[in-house]
Amino acid sequence: xxxxxxxxxxxxxxxxxxxxxxxxxxxxxxxxxxxxxxxxxxxxxxxxxxxxxxxxxxxxxxxxxxxxxxxxxxxxxxxxxxxxxxxxxxxxxxxxxxxxxxxxxxxxxxxxxxxxxxxxxxxxxxxxxxxxxxxxxxxxxxxxxxxxxxxxxxxxxxxxxxxxxxxxxxxxxxxxxxxxxxxxxxxxxxxxxxxxxxxxxxxxxxxxxxxxxxxxxxxxxxxxxxxxxxxxxxxxxxxxxxxxxxxxxxxxxxxxxxxxxxxxxxxxxxxxxxxxxxxxxxxxxxxxxxxxxxxxxxxxxxxxxxxxxxxxxxxxxxxxxxxxxxxxxxxxxxxxxxxxxxxxxxxxxxxxxxxxxxxxxxxxxxxxxxxxxxxxxxxxxxxxxxxxxxxxxxxxxxxxxxxxxxxxxxxxxxxxxxxxxxxxxxxxxxxxxxxxxxxxxx
Length: 442
What we know:
Oligomer: single chain
Low-confidence stretches: 1-7, 253-262
Order of helices and strands: HHHHHHHHHHEHEHHHHHH
Shape: globular
CATH superfamily: SecY subunit domain
């Protein structure tokens, strides 16, 4: 039977997996709806003035430029999805931080699926509050900016804030539907779609700069070489695992009788936190920077402009704070998703142990030791990937093809989605083999 599953992916298997086809179709349609929404403008704005404002404030690759990339250009067009999922992500950060210090939230977390639903509901309520605050700040920014695109005066915030908040919450709902009825993580796929949608324009921009003589041919070649090298490096690290051998007495008894048996392993990823640390770091940095930007646009606040320049993306101060936040969230989120003590207890209950390590407290300490080293390497790796595009941009004078966070999201989401598709294909094959076996018995 094992040979039945060695073929891996094939279009013949996919053609027979009708349930997977429906899930893929639902995912594609949901992403199509999302892309349509990124072109529906907010009411009461002058499109020409919006384009001019976007060129002046979003084309520099700063914090707002990064969020514009995540939103698939929705922020530069000031559409109903301009805030994207960032308010929900910010709310998730706050709730997870409170979970670590609040006994009530900690108790809800331990209740399993029921508690998770309650926490998710709290996150949505907080996301509405964060989205309202950001929508209010964005509306003030548009009204007070030089060459303001607002054509309906003081009525604009009354109309724009509900539109922006509803747009964000619709994306939260759409992401949940993709997760439940489609393939992959819905929220991650929505951000993934926004980043990928901007990549052709970024590639075209590099060629246009080369054609105009703004950058040399050598710089163009090096940009693409660095991009290819980064993709290979990220794929390699994201797939890397540290396998901790696990022994079970029952299996040892089987081996003692001379039968072959594969050993069990506990796989620990180098980057257990995924893309969460850089996203969380960007979200925390962006909030005060966006507030400073909104306030600075309202008048001659030179001191605010100086702060924005000092802490602007690509600068030394920004890079130091950004790396520090990535390191913090790497350890924080890894502690959330993997508990060495709980894993040790589960191994002990199942009768398993790590060779050379005593069950119980010693096993937990050993796993914590390994996980700490892996997380340190993973945090350094993420910091390099996220900072390197800014270094290349400053070196060659051209925007890189993607942000470091963007490439982490693209590759991470791609690997996760392909894994889920492959798992569903295997499940379909198992069901097919079981049906054949039942027919033979009859």
